[in-house]
Amino acid sequence: MRTMEINGRKIGDGHPVYVIAEAGSNHNGDFDIAKQLIDAAIEAGADAVKFQIFKAENLYSKNTPGFKSLDNQDIYELIKKNETPREWISLLSDYCKNAGIEFMATPFDNEAADLLDAHSNSFKIASFEIVDLELIKYTASKSKPLIISTGMASMEEIQDAIQVASSVGNSEVALLHCNSVYPSPPDIVNLRAIQTLKDAFANPVGFSDHTLGIHLPLAAVAMGACVIEKHFTMDRNMDGPDHSFAIEPDELRTLVSNIRDLELAFGTGLKEVSALEKEENYMKGRRSIHANCDIIMGETITKEMLIIKRPAYGIAPKQMDKLIGRKAKADIKEDEWIMWEMVE
Fold it and tell me: How far is CA 109 from the centre of its chain?
């Protein structure tokens, strides 16, 4: 399995999960909100914060029918209203750099890729754009890592995207399993596709999540996702197309913390007693053979004289048959654990 790097941070199996806090256009055209989103991503412990750079005129025909999920609003006008001003790119990048978080963005046209090239160490390709091979090829030609979401994509379309990036010498591609429904109901998520992508391609594979809550991204990590992308907002009640299914800062913080806990919990795979268990619980909490009554020196030990209980300082329970029939070398008091040196 191939790994890749973004600004020195390795991404792939065996490395910490790369968490992208997707701000998108949830700034609502307010630069102060954009900075608040960056600050919230930093506080949560995310690795990167990502915005979207699009222009309505380059993205949608004015004749496009409205989406039912967006109340059939005029999609061109809605996108126009939610554009990220391109003059913000350098400002957002500088703010992220000074604050200590990776700045990322999704270019939706070549001009956006050009502008981002001077300010971002990587590029993100959105699911809807995976069929725009010219955009992928142009962006890949910048020779920076690509993260490609695969919502609605067939395996052939994913292969096409990887190949067109490779055609300009760029093999630094990570794939994100994704569902392009907002929000996505759990029954369409198909987390097993993460392993399918890992088996089919040599690229790092992650999960771009559009479900409600944080439980399914955690499941994705447990199933091998090495990148998690999640939409977030300062307030789900804000006006805009992406706020309602996004998580808020406290949830983002919990998500990142839980991901780090999962990484610690994966362990080595060896079934062994941990050092912490050995400190106390291994002996005091397990069982051994004890005297069920006073046993007089020279007396032959019978099963009725014995009981198995905690702690485990005595003879192991599995040795019960070897103990029965032996004679006590000395008096053994009731409730005392029995050691081999006490019998003959």
Answer: 29
As given in the structure block, the two tokens for residue 262 are: 């999962």
Q: What distance in Å separates the CA atoms of residue 47 and residue 52, rounded to the nearest whole number?
A: 17
As given in the structure block, the two tokens for residue 215 are 């439980």
CATH number of 4-266: 3.20.20.70
Report CA-CA distances (Å) from 321 to 10, 139, 315: 56, 74, 11
Do 310 and 326 touch, CB atoms closer than 8 A? no
Q: Is the Cβ–Cβ distance between 246 and 233 less than 8 Å?
A: yes
Q: What pTM was computed for the model?
A: 0.92
Residues in CB range of 275: below 8 A, 6 or more apart: none
Question: For 265-313, how does the pLDDT look when each residue is reduced to its tens digit (9 = 90+)?
Answer: 999 999 999 999 999 999 999 999 999 999 999 999 999 999 999 999 9
Q: CA 335 to CA 330: how far, in whole Å?
A: 15
Residue 174: beta bridge partners? 147
Classify 275-342 by CATH class: alpha beta
User: Long-range pairs for 291-298 at CB < 8 Å and ≥24 separation?
Assistant: 291/332, 291/333, 291/334, 291/335, 291/336, 291/337, 291/338, 292/334, 293/334, 294/331, 294/332, 294/333, 294/334, 295/328, 295/331, 295/332, 296/328, 296/331, 297/328, 297/329, 297/330, 297/331, 298/327, 298/328
| Domain ranges within the chain, ordered by starting residue | 4-266, 275-342
